[in-house]
Design brief:
With 363 residues, this protein is mainly α. It is built from 14 helices and 4 strands. The protein has a 4-stranded mixed β-sheet with strand order 2-1-3-4, sandwiched between helices.
């Protein structure tokens, strides 16, 4: 009751964590769910032929680039690239149309590698246009019918994320990170707030056992964390069409267990830190260390073997595997039992060590 009264008096903190995290989730999901398009493109066309214009139109038709801005001087391209005003520059040499006829084609394309994500998307679009052009030139030189090569087109199917939406990958990761930060922060502030206000000694001399004090601090954090998870789950389903193809009951049950695991980590921070400011910095440090193992920025499978091994012991990494499996793949325990078992073992170890440490520190 004391904790709930304190949360009522400091209502702005849970409100900020709940709705601030939800707002961040919407912004991240909106930014990542939109395909990369309208990248600024600058063209120096020294040929000015129908063939050069067709190449530029083909690039514009990919949808990746905005309408080309034509210039007459290479220095303009260099200046715009230095300022970061363009993502790609195309320089078509004189005689490009004749090169198309002869089959020996060369032109210069410059990508702004300072922004790697747009540059990678631009490279993919350029390679697609160049590949189609090269195939057409080859078939014309060999005097072959393009219809004879229709059998080489593969049958491509995408499972679980048919539209290849980035939001279906990033929003579950963002949900896991926001849930971890919220739970750890609230748990980390529990005893540090008492110590900073000078009421920890009064709390310790009250007729309650150490475990009762821990449970009293933990219960409101569990409720806030679970409410935030429900809020974020509903938002990603409504705004970004992230489905819940598996068992909702299983997802919510495992979410409660994951919240308990992260809560024990926050409790340890709570008794280590002397002030709320220190607690916040420690939560930020632990959370950012876990961030690299979630696969949010880069797939864990592409990391060095040592990092992949360490990731197996990070609760957030196991939780994201569980959440993506239930949301996107409709997986059940027959598929997810390795992640659930690993999370259970990790959670039990963290919980036992944390509770013993917290009880000893409070005693």
């Amino acid at each position: 009751m004391k904790e709930f009264i304190h949360l009522r008096n400091d209502w702005w903190l849970p409100a900020f964590m709940l709705f601030g995290g939800a707002l961040e989730l919407i912004l991240v999901g909106w930014a990542t769910s939109r395909p990369i398009a309208n990248l600024p493109m600058m063209v120096l066309d020294r040929d000015r032929s129908a063939a050069s214009r067709a190449f530029i139109v083909a690039l514009e038709n990919t949808g990746t680039f905005a309408d080309a801005e034509f210039v007459d001087d290479e220095d303009e391209i260099r200046a715009s690239m230095d300022r970061g005003n363009i993502s790609i520059a195309v320089m078509i040499p004189p005689g490009y149309g004749d090169q198309i006829v002869s089959g020996s084609v060369s032109l210069s394309i410059i990508l702004n590698g300072a922004e790697s994500v747009p540059a990678r998307e631009a490279l993919r679009a350029v390679e697609g246009v160049a590949g189609e052009l090269g195939e057409r030139i080859t078939l014309e030189r060999l005097n072959l019918d393009p219809g004879e090569f229709e059998g080489f087109i593969p049958s491509l199917r995408v499972w679980f994320n048919e539209t290849l939406s980035e939001a279906l990958y990033t929003t579950p990761a963002e949900m896991g990170l926001m849930l971890e930060f919220t739970v750890m922060l609230f748990a980390a502030l529990s005893f540090t707030r008492e110590r900073e206000l000078g009421t920890l000694e009064q709390l310790l001399v009250m007729p309650y056992s150490t475990m009762e004090l821990i449970l009293g601090k933990a219960f409101p954090v569990m409720i806030i964390g679970f409410c935030q998870f429900l809020l974020m789950l509903g938002m990603v389903n409504v705004f970004f069409n992230v489905p819940v193809r598996g068992s909702l009951i299983l997802l919510l049950t495992l979410a409660i267990f994951y919240i308990a695991v992260e809560l024990t980590k926050g409790m340890v921070i709570s008794v280590i830190a002397k002030t709320q400011h220190q607690a916040f910095l420690l939560v930020l440090l632990v959370g950012m260390a876990d961030f690299m193992f979630t696969g949010y920025a880069a797939p864990v499978e592409s990391m060095p073997p040592v990092i992949q091994f360490v990731a197996n012991f990070i609760p957030a990494h196991q939780w994201l595997g569980i959440m993506r499996g239930i949301l996107l793949k409709a997986s059940d325990l027959t598929v997810l039992w390795p992640q659930v078992l690993t999370l259970t073992v990790i959670g039990a170890m963290i919980g036992i060590i944390s509770m013993r440490y917290v009880r000893r520190a409070l005693s």
